[in-house]
Recover the amino acids of this structure.
């Protein structure tokens, strides 16, 4: 006679996930932290540090994908997390840096350029997600 599943399994409890499988998402979150900190540094007028952090975010973005493929840890949630991180790090943060350094004197026109850049980055990522999903 087949063994009956335990009550825990009946309630849909999942087995624990290996830390190694979470590593790519942790790297993505580190990259996201670099992007958010770049925005903070931009607000504080620390532009060189902000640009450096955007470059570190790019490095983390490359590493997370490599790790996910190498560990066989690719997942839909990881892909979405990566996309959201990319929007912040390579759409919003650079737009704010460029606006603060070069476009504040242009007033509304400068802000419009920053908005368009961030919106274009968002649309590009959305199009990529739909094409690969």
């Amino acid at each position: 006679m087949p063994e009956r599943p335990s009550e825990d399994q009946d309630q849909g409890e999942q087995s624990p996930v290996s830390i190694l499988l979470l590593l790519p998402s942790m790297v993505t979150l580190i990259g996201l932290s670099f992007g958010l900190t770049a925005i903070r540094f931009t607000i504080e007028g620390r532009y060189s540090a902000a640009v450096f952090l955007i470059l570190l975010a790019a490095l983390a973005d490359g590493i997370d994908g490599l790790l996910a493929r190498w560990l066989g840890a690719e997942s839909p949630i990881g892909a979405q997390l990566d996309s959201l991180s990319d929007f912040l790090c390579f759409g919003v943060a650079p737009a704010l840096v460029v606006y603060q350094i070069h476009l504040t004197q242009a007033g509304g026109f400068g802000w419009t350029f920053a908005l368009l850049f961030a919106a274009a980055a968002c649309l590009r990522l959305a199009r990529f997600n739909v094409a690969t999903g």
